[in-house]
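User: structure tokens for this one?
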Amino acid sequence: MVEFEEETYSVVFSALKHPIRRKILRVLAEGPCGFADMQKLFNVSSPFLTYHLESMKELVLKSESGRYELSNAGEGAAALMRKVEETPKTLPIDTKLPRSKPILRIVQVALTLAAIGLLISGVYLVSITTFEYRYPLYVDWGVTSGITQTVGDLAFTTQIWANVPPPEALITNRTAELFVRFPSVNSTIAGMYNISIWYVSHGVGGGYTFGEEDYSGNFTSSGTNEDYIFMGLVSVPTSNGLSIDEQPRPYNINIVVLTNSTTLMTAPPLVVESTMYGNAFDGGQPYGTQAFMCLSAGILILGAVLATSMAIHVNSHFQKENLKRLK
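Assistant:
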């Protein structure tokens, strides 16, 4: 019996190994078939078909009518072949939930830290507030070049003059801070200046008298536009026994600068500034644009990270539900 079974298994596996024998099993599984019909169906020669039928003697029987049919072992071999050749209709389902890749977690953590850094930077930049306590005065200016003027041992070829209205602090308090500088140094590196504060006051016995306070000196420049020709206090005199309305009132500031410059000046060559009167300070945020960019980028990155995390969580939840239904 054991020898019979081993022999049967050998015949079965031999039949399943050859394509013609598998075709014979498929055809006979549908019902008995004659030799000529199989020869025509397989388009093979008679000796070739005979050889394969004899090799399948344990699987194929020949009836008295001359037709071939499957034996019990042949039906088992055909069933085995169908099971092996059956194509799965669905892909195998992995019962294990996919794990998030470590690199994805690392990227999320890195982006989160970057977003937090941008948000902190934006808040810090917003907190930086500056107060502009100076304001520029209107400058009516002119330049005379090409005429040499000598002061002592110094010779100058360029004269710059400017008329400036008095700042409010000078009118109200009789004293004000004044800042005079070149907006761009160019080739001007040294020279002399004279600042005249012109004022009008009540004369003795009525009428008005005119006077001036002068501030003169030399200046040098290191080659930057932050070098000041003059920076200090200017004032007009006060008169005892006069009311506030009768005190001398400044009406003009005249500035004359002697220097040597080879640059053609097409814009005001001097910037004149004064401090604001009282508490009229203008607050500003010098890094407002950068702060907005940092905050916007941080919010966008953090939103993208949160959206990605939610998408992964929702997808994981759906996969768990699908596995529950499959089980």
